[in-house]
Amino acid sequence: MEYKDKRLAILMLKDGRYFEGLGFGASKIVTGELVFNTITGAGYNETLTDPSYQGQIVTMTHPLVGNYGVPPWEKDVNGLIKYFESDSIKVSGFVVNECCKHPHHYESAKTLDEFLREQDVPGIEWIDTRSVTKILREEGVQVGLIAVYDAGEKPDLEELKQIVEEAKDPNLRHLAREVSTKEVKKFCPANPVGKAVILDLGVKYSIIRNLLQRNIKVILVPHDCSYSQIMDYKPDGVLISNGPGDPKLYTKAVEVGKELIANDIPTFGICLGNQILGIAAGGDSYKLKYGHRGGNKTVINPDTEQCYITSQNHGYCIQKFEKSGFIEFLRNIDDNSNEGIVHETKPIFAVQFHPEASPGPLDSTYLFDKFTKLMGI
Questions:
Q1: pLDDT, tens digit, for every residue of 22-44?
Q2: Catalytic residues
Q3: What is the pTM of this model?
Q4: CATH of the domain at 16
Q5: Domain endpoint, select from 116, 151, 171
C-alpha cells in the first residue's frame, strides 16, 4: 500500500492476525470487544451512539456506510437530542468496507469521517468486512484493536501485538456505570396520563421518546438507584433499560428486579433489562458466541407461531428463569435463544431485543402499548 497522503490503519485480532486498511476519524490506538452488526445501509448514526456498544469495536457488514451523512446535534421539544440515541458516540472504534466521503441528505451537517474526528473515535475502511465477520462467527467475538495513523506514519506491528495481547475484555468492567445518567432527569409531555421510572443501564433516547409519545412522564434514574428510591417517585410502572456488558455484574439492578417482582410492580425490561429480570427470577445468563446485532433478527412466539423482525444488540442471553412464575413468550428463530419472558400472574414482562426500532423495523413498538396497559393507563 502507498503511504503518501494516506492514513494507514490496522485492525488486529487478539492473536496478532491483522487487516491493513485506510484510516478515518481520529488518529489513535484503541482496544475493545470486536463485534459485527448486520443492519443494512441506514442506521449507522443510531448504532454509533447506542450506549449498548460501550467498549466495543463495531464492524458493519453493509459495504457502504455514511452515504447520507450525519445530522446536527439538535434537540427535540422534550430536550432529547433528536437524531441520536445518546449524547456522544459510544463505540470504541468503527470498521467499514467503505466510508462515504461525499454524503447527500438534506439533514446532513457533516461526514462520517468528520463525526468520528469530532468525537475522537478511530475508524478503518477498505478492508474485507465479510472476512472479519466470518472469523467472528466461526471463532466468536474477541478483544481486538484499531490503530489509525496520521499521513506518512507507519505502524509498529510488534508494538500493536503487545498492546492487543495485554488488552482486557471490556465486559469485565461495570460498563453500565460508564453510560448511565449521573443524576435524576425528568421528561414530561404536555398532558401526562401516567408516570414511569426508567432504571438507566444505558437507555436509548428512542425508548424515552416512545413513552413520551404515549403521554407518559418519564423519570430517569441512575443504574445504582435502589427499589425504595424508585418507589419514592410513586411510578405507575418501571422500565429496566438496555445497556452494555455482563448482567451478572449488575447486582444492584438485580436486587431492584427482585423487589419489583415480589411487589407486583408493572415492569418492562428491554434487552439488558430482560437479562436483569431473568436473573432476578432465579435464572442464569450466558454469553453468546457472536451475539445478535442488527436490524433484521427474526423472533417467534412459539404459542401463536407469529414472527416479528426485530432490532437487536446484545451479547448475553438468559436461561432457567422459570423458577418464579415466568414463561418464555418469544424465541430467536435462528438459535432458539430466549427473546422474551412474561410472568404468568404478575404485570411484568421483558424482551431481549429493541422494540423502539432505532434503527430497525417497527414490528414491536406495540410492546410500549402493552406496558402502558399494564400500568392501568
A1: 999 999 999 999 999 999 878 99
A2: 271, 354, 356
A3: 0.96
A4: 3.50.30.20
A5: 171
